[in-house]
Amino acid sequence: MPHKRIERVIRAALERGARPPAPPKLAEALPYAVLPGGARVRPHLCQTVARACGDDLPDLTDHAAAALEFIHCASLVHDDLPCFDDADLRRGKASVHCAFGEPIAVLVGDALIILAYETIAEAASNDPARAMGLTRALARSTGTPYGICAGQAWESEDRVDLSAYHRAKTGALFIAATEMGAIAAGHDPEYWTELGARIGEAYQIADDLRDTLLDEEELGKPAGQDSVHNRPNAVTAFGIDGALRKLHDALGAAIASIPSCPGEAELAEIVRQQAERLTPVAYANRVA
Fold first, then answer.
1. Which of 121, 183, 199, 218 is 20 to 30 A (C-alpha) from 176?
2. Is 50 exceeded by the pLDDT of residue 288?
3. CB-count exposure of residue 251 (10 Å: 0-12, 13-18, 19+)
4. pLDDT per residue over 102-135, tens digit each?
């Protein structure tokens, strides 16, 4: 199964990072931050695009997908820190800094970022040129000016460009997912950028809706954080119905942007399924 392939790579990389002489607390905190994990949406999207493009080097695809998840998990660990969201809950359990202390949490995030690039390097012998392309795509979506570091930094600005904030904060890793899936299979990533951007836009709007409408138990993390931290939010900007319409439009645009390929129908169905999963149930029928 494709999903099990990702988990095997993730667990093998974590074991390498946690083996002696790694400090015991860091060794324990690394897998805590990644396992059992969430929906693994980004790595699964990467795999799906690779399959749509032929996936002639599945081992390279699996390592690319795992690298994406390590970057995502690193961002969650850092986002939860007291200097940012100061969140004490993540995926229904204590956030890393609450469980292990703030210094370890900072180092866990840093170590996961490095582990992501090491994971791509582990599979580079499959095709060094593709591995270099994967490294470049992941770096661009992690750093600045287009990546998640820039996205987090927008929250420290007095005036925020909501579109740029959403594209960097959430869209960046979805863009990386679609581009890296294409690169791993030897295809031009440019044709897949729009799909990642649209899915990322939809996820951020959905996250804003869920942050506003759901409670901590339903989310598995603190609710109402955008209001608490005075952060840009699609619901604040457009209202509930306006945000729902934008979510619907973004998902429709994502489906329309899928390049013609053998896996086009599968990708479209995955996006439709995600639309149902993303929209808070009580509001699913309010889109005009």
1. 218
2. no
3. buried
4. 999 999 999 999 999 999 999 999 999 999 999 9
Q: Which residue has the tokens 């420290």?
A: 156
Q: 101-112 in b/e burial notation, b at 16+ Cβ within 10 A?
A: eeebbbbbbebb
Burial of residue 38 (number of CB atoms within 10 Å: 0-12, 13-18, 19+): middle
DSSP 229: T
Helix (H, G, I), strand (E, B) or coil at 260: coil
Instruction: Give the whole-angstrom CA distance, residue 226 versus residue 176.
Output: 25
CATH of domain 2-283: 1.10.600.10
From CA 104, how far away is CA 83, in angstroms rounded?
14
In 3-state terms, what secondary structure has residue 55? Answer: coil
249: alpha, beta or left? (left if phi > 0; alpha if psi -120 to 50)? alpha
Task: Tell me which of 226 and 74 has the higher pLDDT.
Answer: 74
Instruction: State the Cα–Cα distance between residues 171 and 147, nearest whole angstrom.
Output: 8
